[in-house]
Amino acid sequence: MATAAIPVKARGLAQILAWRRVRFVLIVSVSFGVLLNIGNSAPAYVVFARTIIEGMAILTVFGLFEQWPRRLWRPFSRWGWQVLGVVAVIPFAAFLAYWITTGGDPQLDTNKLRQMGYIQLCMAALVFAPWIAVGALIRQRENFARDQALAFELEKSELERTALDTRFRLLQAQVEPHFLFNTLANIQALVDAGSPQASSVLKSLIAYLRAAVPRMHQAGTTLGQELELVRAYLELMQMRIPDRLKFALHVEPAANALQCPPMTLLTLVENAVRHGIDPREDGGRIDVDVWLRDGRCHARVTDTGVGLQSKTGGLGTGLSTLRERLQLAFGGDAQLRLTEVQPHGVCAELEFPVRQESA
User: Fold this and answer.
1) HSE-up of residue 244 (Cα within 13 Å, Cβ side)
2) Quick one: residue 339, left, alpha or beta (phi over 0 = left, psi -120 to 50 = alpha)?
3) Which residues contact 188 (CB under 8 A, 6 or more apart)?
4) Which end of the chain is more exposed for a tag (fewer CB within 10 A), N or C?
């Protein structure tokens, strides 16, 4: 299962001289260069070069102290260490800027104009650089907190999906023995009664299970595949009670490609046979109708069995697990309703959003 990942943070020189940082420093340095050019006798390009050199030197120390040393002495915090490094490097960065722009001869001890420019450059950096560094650190912490929150949400979402998938598998595992034991009980009844149909019914059951059991383990199936199983199941039950069961399937062709949880319609039909038709002495009829309307699929299983009033414990575990599987598969966007049919019988109506089978 693929999951989104938080990008790995760069380290070393790639982090120190990241383009976003360099771009920000260049903008700030040029802005200070504009201010320092006012009333300055040095050429404008020289002043700009000095502010840029100083800004890059400060950035380098800021990034270096962000990574070094790996472990700080306990009283020091990382952000305090970085701000201290920025303040400490300013005089040296200003001197480096003058040394480079004067060809290695800054003459700060004899040239009064350069002394004044040097002091202005240092003072401007000392006033603003620490605050800029603090602002950058605050933004870093906010970005780190946001990344951590995103990673937590991704992990939480993944755990929730895993939990839902596990719950879905457990519910399917509960459906399998429920359905199989019910069907085998029907075969046992034929054998006990000495019915000559027992062998043919068992043969049909084996053929049916070969197709049905692998689909029980799938996370999803299509209505077309589900209806094939429904038809095979009803034919199997009709062989067992030929005089007491009649059925008909009416399906809109466009519904065959829709996705649904395995055993969805089969659970409704099995309940209609087991709790509706079987208990009634003269049997009854089961009608399965499937159609589409307004972007939703509607399925209805109607039987003319004994109805709801004769049952004290509901319709069994099949429908209770089906409700949970529909909740997990469609997130509450599916509905299952049971109504009494007059003069006798039950109508189970299922409604869920249209989802085409993925290619």
Assistant:
1) 16
2) beta
3) none
4) C
Contact by Cβ (8 Å): 289, 227: no
What are the domain boundaries of the chain?
A: 13-157, 195-353
- Give the separation between CA 170 and CA 74, rounded to whole angstroms: 51
Q: Which residues touch 39 (CB under 8 Å, ≥6 apart)?
A: none
Give Cβ neighbours of residue 124 (< 8 Å, ≥ 6 apart): 32, 35, 36
Per-residue pLDDT of the chain (359 residues; tens, 9 = 90+): 334 444 445 567 888 888 888 999 999 999 988 988 888 888 999 999 999 999 999 999 998 888 888 887 777 788 888 889 899 999 999 999 999 999 898 888 888 889 999 999 999 999 999 898 888 888 888 887 888 888 888 777 776 666 556 555 554 544 455 556 766 776 777 778 777 777 777 777 776 666 666 655 565 678 888 888 888 888 878 877 788 999 999 999 999 988 888 778 888 998 898 888 988 888 899 999 999 998 899 999 999 988 876 444 444 567 877 888 788 788 778 899 999 988 889 999 999 998 765 54
Q: What is the DSSP letter of 258?
A: B
What is the per-residue burial (b if ≥16 Cβ within 10 Å, else e) of 172-203? Answer: bebbeebbeeebeebbeebeeeeeeebeebee
Spell out the alpha helix ranges (H) of 68-197: 78-101, 112-192
What is the three-state SS of 177-212?
HHHHHHHHHHHHHHHHCCCCCHHHHHHHHHHHHHHH
- In terms of Cβ atoms closer than 10 Å to its own Cβ (0-12, 13-18, 19+), residue 290 is buried
| Alpha-carbon distance values, 250 to 227, 263, 299 (Å) | 10, 18, 10
Q: Which tokens go with 112?
A: 């009064």
Fold observed for domain 195-353: Heat Shock Protein 90 (3.30.565)
69 DSSP assignment: S
The separation between CA 208 and the C-alpha centre of its own chain, rounded to angstroms, equals: 36
